[in-house]
Automatic annotation (TrEMBL):
<keyword id="KW-0378">Hydrolase</keyword>
<feature type="signal peptide">
    <location>
        <begin position="1"/>
        <end position="26"/>
    </location>
</feature>
<keyword id="KW-0326">Glycosidase</keyword>
<dbReference type="InterPro" id="IPR016288">
    <property type="entry name" value="Beta_cellobiohydrolase"/>
</dbReference>
<keyword id="KW-0119">Carbohydrate metabolism</keyword>
<dbReference type="InterPro" id="IPR036434">
    <property type="entry name" value="Beta_cellobiohydrolase_sf"/>
</dbReference>
<protein>
    <recommendedName>
        <fullName>Glucanase</fullName>
        <ecNumber>3.2.1.-</ecNumber>
    </recommendedName>
</protein>
<comment type="similarity">
    <text>Belongs to the glycosyl hydrolase family 6.</text>
</comment>
<keyword id="KW-0624">Polysaccharide degradation</keyword>
<dbReference type="GO" id="GO:0016787">
    <property type="term" value="F:hydrolase activity"/>
</dbReference>
<dbReference type="Pfam" id="PF01341">
    <property type="entry name" value="Glyco_hydro_6"/>
</dbReference>
<keyword id="KW-0136">Cellulose degradation</keyword>
<keyword id="KW-0732">Signal</keyword>
Length: 327
């Protein structure tokens, strides 16, 4: 089973440090960062762990590459039970993006029984708590443009829950889609649809329909995973075809391309060796509405793979460099 294991944490795995010449190199990176940010319609989150690490390690030889390849690229900010006042957190982030004339990408990641006890376990403590939280989230986006990915893995992971809990989760997800439809009319919200090697397309379509995908723009695929854009697009199109044939409507989709440059292997979801950064965020491509970096490259999937000892959600410069170099 594949999981998106990305709770936001403040810890940063430092790893071995090196020295750089600073000066001219730093100036070039700064120019690249400005140019990259200006060229994209999506907001570059200045508050990532990767950005904090680069700022704290200006003489590390890895810092310029991480800054150019990752920090300067637009990605998603994840919100969950670590975010404090969710209304303030979401509104502040969306407002910051609007002030720059950019579209923010946000992830709602607080479903009850999140990750079924896995590396990213947690979430709202009750159904009532989740309803309150997601309602405030949607209201905080308000009448402003945004892209929102709703609860990575929550639909695909239904099998890990007892039958009654599956019904409860499906109802909570449907409530979430209703909230975004009613309270965030300019947001393009996407209910997460797993990845190309997890749930059969027809089954996923049935689950997405029950969870309210008709209320939102569509669904997301490959979040925090490694499968190629072509594989992910083919899967998404099969899901959409099933929605069309079974329920007489279609939906758009987005693909997480943050780490799929070399493709993936079924079953290897946790910091696998050989992964590489994928296509930088862009509008359209391979039939998708957008290609996005939903997972922040360099943040660990858990203390496994090529990131032993690095907790889920923790940035590691070593993991980041592996993705940059594709090894």
């Amino acid at each position: 089973m594949m999981r998106a294991v990305i709770p936001l944490v403040v810890a940063v795995a430092v790893g071995a440090a090196g020295c750089s010449s600073g000066g001219a190199s730093a100036a070039r990176v700064s120019a690249d960062q400005v140019e990259g940010a200006a060229a994209s319609p999506f907001y570059v989150d200045p508050g990532t762990q990767a950005a904090a690490w680069v700022k704290a390690h200006p003489r590390d030889a890895r810092a310029p590459k991480i800054k150019t390849a990752i920090v300067a690229r637009p990605g998603a900010r994840w919100f969950g039970n670590w975010s404090g006042d969710i209304s303030r957190a979401v509104s502040g982030y969306v407002g910051a993006a609007k002030s720059k004339g950019k579209t923010p990408v946000l992830v709602a990641y607080n479903i009850t029984d999140r990750d079924c006890g896995g590396a990213s376990h947690g979430g709202a403590g009750s159904s009532a708590a989740y309803r309150t939280w997601i309602s405030k989230f949607a209201a905080a986006v308000g009448n402003r443009p945004a892209i929102v990915v709703i609860e990575p893995d929550a639909v695909a992971q239904l099998d890990c829950l007892p039958a009654a809990a599956q019904k409860t989760r499906t109802a909570l997800l449907k409530y979430a889609t209703e909230q975004f439809k009613a309270k965030a009319p300019k947001a393009r919200a996407y209910l997460d649809g797993g990845n190309a090697h997890w749930v059969a397309p027809a089954t996923m379509a049935t689950r997405l329909n029950a969870a309210g995908v008709k209320n939102v723009r569509g669904f997301s695929v490959n979040v925090s995973n490694f499968f190629t854009t072509a594989e992910s697009s083919a899967y998404a199109k099969k899901v959409d075809s099933a929605l069309s044939s079974k329920y007489r409507y279609t939906r758009g989709f987005v693909i997480d391309t943050s780490r799929n440059g070399h493709g993936g292997t079924p079953g290897k979801w946790c910091n696998p060796a050989g992964a590489k950064l994928g296509t930088v965020p862009q509008v359209g491509g391979s039939g998708a509405d957008d290609l996005l970096w939903v997972k922040t490259p360099g943040e660990s999937d858990g203390p496994c793979g090529v990131g032993p000892g690095v907790p889920a959600g923790t940035f590691s410069p070593d993991l980041a460099m592996r993705l940059i170099n594709g090894r």
